[in-house]
Write a structure and sequence with these properties.
heterotrimer; A alpha/beta; B mainly alpha; C mainly alpha; A: alpha/beta; Rossmann fold; eight-stranded mixed beta sheet; four-stranded antiparallel beta sheet; 11 helices; B: mainly alpha; MetI-like fold; flat; Oligopep_ABC_C (chain A); cell membrane (chain A)
Amino acid sequence: MSGTLLEINDLAVSFSTQGGEVQAVRGVSFAVGPGETVAIVGESGCGKSVTAQSIMRLIPEPPGRIKHGSIHLHGKDLASLTEKQMRNVRGKQIGMIFQDPMTSLNPTLTVGDQLTEGILTHEKMSQREANKEAIELLHLVGIANPDERLKQYPHQFSGGMRQRLMIAMALMCKPELLIADEPTTALDVTIQAQIIDLFKEIQEKTGVAIIIITHDLGVVAQIADRINVMYAGEIVEYGTVKEIFYQPEHPYTRGLLTSVPRLDGDRSQPLIPIVGTPPDLFAPPVGCAFTSRCKYAMKVCQAHDPEVTELSEQHYTKCWLQDDRVEKPY
Amino acid sequence: MLKYIFKRFLWMILTIWIIVTLTFFLMHAIPGDPLDVADVGSSDAASANLAAYYNLDQSLPMQYVTYLKNVATFDFGPSMTSRSRTVNDMLESGFPASLQLGLATLFFSVISGVALGVFAALRHNRMIDYVTMILAVIGISIPNFIQSMLFINYIAVNIEFFPIARWGTYRHVILPAIALASGPMAIIARLTRSNMLEVLTQDYIRTAKAKGLSARKIVVKHALRNALLPVVTIMGALTAAVLTGSFVVERIFAIPGIGQYFVSSISNRDYPMIMATTVIYSSILVVMMFIVDILYGFIDPRIKLHAKED
Amino acid sequence: MALTQNRTNKQKIDDSLFVPLDKHSAELDVMVRPSLGFWQDAWKRLLKNKLAVSGLFLIVLLTIMAIIGPWLTPYTYSEQTLSNQNMGPSSEHWFGTDNLGRDMFTRTWYGARISLFIGFSAALIEFIIGVIYGGISGYKGGRTDNILMRIIDILYGLPYLLVVILLMVVMGPGLFTIIIALTLTGWIGMARIVRGQVLQLKTNEYVLASKVLGANTSRIIRKHLLPNTMGPVIVSMTLTVPGAIFAEAFLSFLGLGVSAPIASWGSMANDALGVLNTGYWWRLFFPAFFISLTMLAFNVFGDGLRDALDPKLRR
């Protein structure tokens, strides 16, 4: 694919624990182009956060380990960089935003200090210049009186405001890619909408590419160009927002969609939960990991890992129901 | 912030006043006449004279008022054992040695405790971590007076560098300071280590890492500061432990500090001396806790909010 | 696109497998692990900790020796044999004798009785006072809490040595004076821990839920607050014991503890101060060794207990 910013190929991440090896990510591949927004969607524990943190090489090693696969940023493999080389990527080329803005800021340092320390590390710049940048960004993320606010401490900000701070912080060095790990989960619903609007606005103004990790399909529908649906450490379906929402093929994706209310659909339809729990990643099952929860499961699903089927140029799924020999039950 | 400091300051003065008062009345509740112990002549006139000398002829409330006045001006009156000297003389002669020992101990225990704790945390679950923690448990388990005696018996005797007794040069300070400091040092090291480990798992450390900061910068700027907050809070209690510990250590190493006067004043029922030492030690303790409170307010910006809520 | 690369040959898979699975729901939710109660779980974790187990073993051993030790020799702790002054360890006097010809082995284990008795009673008394005081302070909150905490603040500034000395003079020296003197200020730490725990637990949702369901105060305290504060309290108790043993030895060393001829590790060490550098090493060695060993055993066991009871602190 030409014009690719980030390309992840067959990435596998494991954690060694006392009970054995947890295969958190098992062969994930996807790509992000400049300025586009890609979402990773899935339940908690499906490996989406680990994937995000692996891109930044933020998983603690040990116990975590990138087993195989590559993460190419502009053709440079991040998985093989040294820690020192990686530091030049973190914050500078890729910015990251975390789930809980309450705990992600250091309570004992001023906001200004935390905003500017990244840019001061990466670029030759005086504190005064860095402050100017910070004030500009605080304007951009919608924080009033930025020069006053720089001298304050995180506890003087509300939850939504802190997430705005986190976004500003991640954008300080004008990165090409922004990874947002569940950026709205810890916020009130009204604030969530504001933050999503902010992401869209920022993308328009700066042209930054965004990887957004979430379990909230509502968020995805509003912001993403393309969606990766993750289950048990694998991507089970991939497509544009339209394809995923209107022509979902994988039973898990279909399950996700019928388990949340839709404003555009028939509201008399009941919400159907996906029964059961995800498999234990200590010992992932042979065959398709979704078998035990899938209402269309077949014998083949238990025995063989499903293959990836290309549905359109931008739409793939990993499911045996796509095989020619099967008559689709839906 | 100023209001907070002022409030704490008033509270400190109040505490010292209560302790002074308690001490005074407790000392006077003790049965027996202190003048019985001092070898006074048998004549009534002499006793009366002495009673007047020590203000014992006044009514209790009057004695209390006089005493308060004196304490406020740091005048603790004449000693009862060595009648020619005032308590102040004795305190003045003993204070420098005790202060030197106390400061050396605090300095040594804080610096090395923090260093060991940080080191152990950064090498978590490796050899250095285990060794440090085992040493810390041993440091806590061997009482300071035992350590002092072992030091004299095995180190000072064999290594000429360390003098066995007396006071004067920096060499005199080393062994007693180590004996006195090893307990607090071990406590600080353990506390620092566990705080450090806790802090290193915090989300804001990950944020700092995501900004591309170096590991050293993350530890020094983000982790250490937060890990040391709880250490600051135990400084008050540690000071108390060092103060009490200094009584025995001064005795074993024959250091001419306040401790020796205190110990002998107990058996001699030298009331002015006991009261003076108690008041001084309590005051040091209370002032230390005041300083800790203020320091905490400066290090942790969230404290200001709590003060408002108070 | 990268996703398509792991293509295997579809046709290899038998057609007969492409039929719906039946009853697959039977194998749902089979991965539930056996659940252990909190105390069972803590006990298992404690047993895994070799250091803590050896600490516990030492404590038991020291306690047994404190009980039977003095009976193992034909001597008593106060029996003086002036012809046997300062004899080194031998088959007759296993730990040697002191300057009055008293048997050090008997005196050492007699001292262990004193130390352990003081350690255990201090821990017990501090536990009772601390739990009641801290519990009331934390549960009542508000004004009561404020007043109770101010009292603690003042007591905290009072050096315990002074309290001990005053009590010694008022009550006369002795075992009970020491215990009372130690607990008079010693319960403060325990009360603070209990208060902090209760204060925090009280606002927990499950306590609120229980209140909403109509549970009365005594039930909330019994069923929710007490069991959940027990962990830190037990740990604190275990760590109180070495503190009290140290304090007794310290006081006896200063001549403020038990009076002669009663043996205590502290007073034995104090006696040895006069014969430092004379070659009578056993005079210092045995009391010093056993104080340190006892404190080490309790400290190690207490640490292990804390790790076992508080999985969060497990590092």
